[in-house]
Design brief:
This protein is mainly β and 339 residues long. The chain has a domain of 213 residues: YVTN repeat-like/Quinoprotein amine dehydrogenase (Methylamine Dehydrogenase, Chain H). Helix content is 8%, strand content 47%. It comes from Sphingomonas sanguinis.
Length: 339
C-alpha cells in the first residue's frame, strides 16, 4: 500500500469534513424555504383538499357537499369561501345547492356554512381589495355581497343581474363594477354591486360567454364565448366591443399575467395559448396532457396551476413556458388557492 504524506492526509480530512457539512447545509437551506400549500376544490369528490408544493403530497381534506365549485380566499389567506353549486355544470338540470362554505385555511376545517335558501346554484365567487365577498346565484341571476364575510350570516346587498343563467363573473378591485357571463342568453352584463338602481349594461357577444378577466388597469374586459371558441375584448366602462379573435376551438378560461398578456385554456385543443393584449394574436402554445377547466394564477405570480380533466394539477412556469411539475388529485379539480 502506498504511503500517504502529510499534505494528502490534511486534504483528505478537509474533504471528509466538507462532505459531512453538505447534508447539514442542504437541510438548513430547505428549512429556510417555507413549504407552500395548494388548496384545491375537487368538485366530483365534494371537498377541498390540501397538497404540499411542489411534490403534491396530500395534507388532508375537508368534506363539503355535492359539487362545490368556485373558491376565493380573503386577502390574509385565513379563510376561503366556496360556492355550493350542487350540480355538475350549467348545462345540467336540478335545483342545485343553496349554501356557501367558509373554510379555515390555517386549521384545514369547515368554519361554518352560510345558508342562502331559497336562492340556489351559487357558482362564481370573488373578493375585492376591501375584503368584501361576492357570490353569484346562477339560477336566480343575483349577485350577493358580504361586507364582513368572516361573521356574516346573510348578504349585506343583493343585486338583480337580469340574466337567464348567470354563471361566472369578475369584479373590479374597488368593488364598483361587476361583470357577469350569462351563459344561456349570450350576454355579458355589467352591474353596480352596491346600487340596484344602476341599470345593468348588457352586451350580446355570441353563443355562451363563460371565462372572464380584467386587464391589469381594469380598462379592458376579456370574454370567452366557450362553444364558439372566440376571445372578445370589450371596453370595461361601456362594454363596447374592441376586438375579437378566433381560438383553437372550444375554450373555457382566461387569466391575465402581470404584464397584461392573456393565457387561454383551450378545451378542444387540450392546450394553453398566450395572447397579446394589444391584438389578441396568439404568441405561444403549450400542449397539455388533458384539457384544463381551471386556471389558477396567484396575483403577481409567475407559476400557473392548471386543473386538468385527468384529475391532476399541472405546474407551469410562465417565464419558461413549460410544465415543470404536477401531481394527482381527487375527482374533478378546479379552482385553487396558494397558501
Amino acid at each position: 500500500m502506498p504511503m500517504i504524506d502529510r499534505r494528502q492526509g490534511l486534504w483528505g480530512v478537509a474533504a471528509l469534513g466538507l462532505a459531512s457539512l453538505l447534508p447539514l447545509a442542504w437541510r438548513r437551506a430547505q428549512a429556510a424555504v417555507p413549504e407552500r400549500t395548494l388548496a384545491v376544490v375537487e368538485k366530483g369528490a365534494g371537498r377541498v383538499a390540501f397538497y404540499s408544493l411542489p411534490e403534491g403530497r396530500p395534507l388532508g381534506h375537508v368534506p363539503l357537499g355535492t359539487q362545490p365549485h368556485e373558491m376565493v380566499a380573503d386577502p390574509a389567506g385565513r379563510f376561503a369561501y366556496i360556492g355550493g353549486y350542487g350540480v355538475k355544470g350549467w348545462q345540467f338540470g336540478g335545483q342545485g345547492g343553496h349554501q356557501l362554505w367558509a373554510i379555515d385555511l390555517a386549521d384545514r376545517k369547515l368554519a361554518r356554512t352560510i345558508d342562502l335558501a331559497p336562492h340556489r346554484r351559487w357558482h362564481g365567487m370573488r373578493m375585492d381589495a376591501k375584503g368584501r365577498l361576492y357570490a353569484l346565484s346562477e339560477s336566480d341571476s343575483l349577485l350577493a355581497r358580504f361586507d364582513a364575510p368572516t361573521t356574516a350570516d346573510s348578504p349585506d346587498r343583493m343585486i338583480p343581474v337580469g340574466g337567464a343563467r348567470s354563471h361566472y363573473f369578475v369584479v373590479k378591485a374597488d368593488g364598483s363594477r361587476a361583470y357577469i357571463a350569462d351563459t344561456m342568453s349570450g350576454l355579458v352584463i355589467m352591474v353596480d354591486p352596491d346600487d340596484a338602481s344602476f341599470a345593468p349594461v348588457k352586451q350580446h357577444i355570441g353563443t355562451a360567454p363563460e371565462g372572464l378577466a380584467l386587464s391589469p388597469d381594469e380598462r379592458t374586459l376579456y370574454v370567452i364565448d366557450r362553444p364558439a371558441g372566440i376571445l372578445h375584448a370589450l371596453d370595461a366602462g361601456t362594454l363596447r366591443p374592441r376586438a375579437r379573435k378566433s381560438l383553437r376551438g372550444e375554450a373555457v378560461r382566461v387569466v391575465v399575467q402581470g404584464d397584461g398578456r392573456l393565457i387561454i385554456a383551450n378545451t378542444a385543443d387540450k392546450s394553453l395559448t398566450r395572447h397579446s393584449p394589444a391584438t389578441l394574436a396568439e404568441e405561444a402554445r403549450l400542449p397539455l396532457p388533458a384539457a384544463a377547466p381551471g386556471l389558477n394564477l396567484p396575483a403577481g405570480g409567475a407559476i400557473l396551476y392548471a386543473a386538468l380533466e385527468n384529475n391532476r394539477i399541472a405546474i407551469i412556469d410562465l417565464a419558461a413556458w413549460k410544465i415543470t411539475g404536477g401531481f394527482a388529485t381527487g375527482e374533478s379539480p378546479d379552482t385553487a388557492v396558494l397558501l
